[in-house]
Amino acid sequence: MKVETLRWSDGVLEMIDQRVLPATFIYLSYDSAAAVAEGIRSMVVRGAPAIGVAAAYGVALEALRLLSVTDESFQRGMNEGFNTLAQSRPTAVNLFWALARMKQVWQSVSNESNRQVAMCLLAEAHEIFAEDIRINRALGSHGAELLRDGAHVLTHCNAGALATAGHGTALGVIRSAVEAGKKISVIADETRPFLQGARLTAWEMVQEKIPVTLITDNMAGYMMSRGEVDAVVVGTDRVAANGDVANKIGTYMVAVLAQRHHIPFYVACPLSTIDMSITSGVDIPIEERHADEVKGFRDFHWAAQGVQIRNPSFDITPAELVTALITEKGVIHQPDAGKLRTLFS
Ligand code: MRU
């Protein structure tokens, strides 16, 4: 079964509700920028590239919704739509990248009728969607070459089809290696507190019959010390100009352990995730999510009442711990400011 994380259907955007996977598989429908922004904020859709694609459709939906209003109301409504989407989540740069691209298209056709503008924005959203799959396939085949036949690959969070328009970034590398005939088995960190590893990565791999073993986050060091991990491949939400990597909370811990055990630590990273305007990881905004996510899961809370809670949703892995960035343009070993500058020049 191919996972269609987002799909355009009869004038609305449909997205798999990732909050209830794997117990329940349902699509929810979205028809405005505000609704899509809420879908992003509440994590119906999550994962950096998927957030970017959803936001692009959110802009197109807003234009379609405003077809018959005056030019002035259209301008105002569209600007509000862009702002609401930009405030949905702070860390994944793909959101802002996609919105900037959509704004450029809007500006380039702003003299046209509302209908014409909406059609151009929808075409651009479709293009961002299709491009994401092409990019993931390209970076997947570059990354596949780094994995030996028989490798046990640890991943953190979910950087799979569910986190993108399709194929995935980190899981795209694994899928491409499997498609190339390699036997790969996956070790999925459960990824507290939102359990993207246990719920989403494990689900994707089970669907495709790629061998997968689930561990809790605090088991990774033990597995590495026993020689049971050959490589780590993770995704990213934003890479700074010096190669520092923001990804799901716990990624930094995995990178430190990987270095201790001489295990390569790879980051699958579309170019749209590299933010050359940010010098280093300290300047990447880190989302702090609601305390309830740490207290327990859904309605069941196990933490002592009254305890103070922190819930930073991402952390920064310094570039020096990154063996390579895997991009659609190729593999960048030991990334640093000079290599990233060259990549974009
Ligand atoms: O909070 P999430 O689930 O949106 O966090 C997702 C991650 O951290 C992913 O690893 C990252 O977005 C890369 S997805 C290809």
Automatic annotation (TrEMBL):
HAMAP family: Salvage_MtnA. It catalyses: 5-(methylsulfanyl)-alpha-D-ribose 1-phosphate = 5-(methylsulfanyl)-D-ribulose 1-phosphate. This is Methylthioribose-1-phosphate isomerase. Substrate binds at residues 46-48, 89, 196, 247-248. Keywords: Amino-acid biosynthesis, Isomerase, Methionine biosynthesis. The gene is mtnA. It is an enzyme of class 5 (isomerase). One of its GO terms (molecular function) is S-methyl-5-thioribose-1-phosphate isomerase activity. It holds the Pfam family IF-2B. The active site is at 237 (proton donor). InterPro entries: IF-2B-related, IF-M1Pi, IF_2B-like_C, Initiation_fac_2B_a/b/d, M1Pi_N, NagB/RpiA_transferase-like. The record marks 157 as: Transition state stabilizer. It comes from Candidatus Nitrotoga arctica. Its EC number is 5.3.1.23. Catalyzes the interconversion of methylthioribose-1-phosphate (MTR-1-P) into methylthioribulose-1-phosphate (MTRu-1-P). Belongs to the EIF-2B alpha/beta/delta subunits family. MtnA subfamily. The keyword Amino-acid biosynthesis applies. Pathway: Amino-acid biosynthesis; L-methionine biosynthesis via salvage pathway; L-methionine from S-methyl-5-thio-alpha-D-ribose 1-phosphate: step 1/6. It comes from the Bacteria.
